[in-house]
Amino acid sequence: MKTYYECYPCFLRQALKAAQLSGASDQQQFEVLQKTLTLLQDFNPDARPPEIGYRVHKNVRDVVGDLDPYQKEKLAHTRQALDLYPKLKELVSQSVDPLEMAIRISIAGNIIDLAMKDHFDDLWLTVERVIQQPYAINHGQRLIESLKKSDWVLYLADNAGETVFDRVLIETLAMPVVYAVKHAPIVNDALMSDALLSGLDECTTLISNGSQALGTVLSLKLIMKRSAMPVKKYSVFYKPNAR
Fold it and tell me: Which residue among 109, 148, 197, 204 is least enclosed by CB atoms within 10 Å?
């Protein structure tokens, strides 16, 4: 993943939005923007967006003190997605190719991404568009062949709400799935609590990826080990419910 020039104003937008969601005062918002500008100046041009994003949002937490500014948004988005869950399952069950349909549904869920912009399109209209739209790059057959050779799947979570769309795909797969959520809050990325609300404990083994970045950044795992962020008892490993 490369950092493009367009990423820099996006980081500023993210920092300001997170501060506003945290209820930051005007002075705090100004301080957040100052710190973000300084941070962006000091970063190596080769740094990847998840590494930069981690530092940007740490600045917001340090200034404002809110550990999870997007908590309300994540809850609302997960509930919106859960409302669609029966219709999504119906699409899969009625499809001539259930796995292909479930993959497309999981792709549609990726629109719930507040790191890219502050809002997203109607969820159901997005599903209808994505299940009809041709792929720009189609590695579907390669994925299916890899699945045939696999005993289990490691599934890296992205955003809360998208977790419900992931659930539809996971319930379509024939092998066990381990679902890795973020270790601690970053934008609207899914935490263990978001995965549980989405019902993923019913079909996967839930684990933490050990990171608090926009992605799974292995170099930041040591940072997380030194962090004072409290870890709930289910944040590391959660077995699926018995059926």
Answer: 148
pLDDT score, position 56: 92
Return the number of other C-beta atoms located less than 10 Å from residue 191's C-beta.
25
Do 173 and 135 lie in one domain? The reply is yes
Confidence (pLDDT) at 224: 44
DSSP string, 17-34: HHHHHTT--HHHHHHHHH
Phi/psi of residue 102, nearest 5 degrees:
-65, -35
Query: In residues, how long is the chain?
Result: 243
User: Cα angle vertex 87, ends 85, 90, to 5°?
Assistant: 110
Residue at 1 is within a domain: no
Q: For residue 113, give both structure tokens.
A: 């991404």
The model's pTM: 0.84
Residue 79's H or E segment, with its range, is helix 71-94
Q: In what helix (H) or strand (E) does residue 221 lie, and over which residues does it extend? A: helix 221-226
- Could you tell me the pLDDT band of residue 230, with boundaries at 50, 70 and 90? very low
* pLDDT at residue number 118: 65
Residue 48 belongs to what domain range?
A: 7-64
Strands 205-208 and 177-181: parallel
The Cα–Cα gap between 153 and 202 comes to 16
Instruction: Collect all residues with Cβ–Cβ distance below 8 Å to 166 and sequence separation of at least 6.
Output: 106, 109, 155, 157, 179, 198, 200
pLDDT digits (tens, 9 = 90+) for 200-211: 999 999 999 888
* Among 45, 64, 83, residue at a domain's last position: 64
115 in Cβ contact with 187 (< 8 Å): yes
CATH number at residue 167: 3.40.50
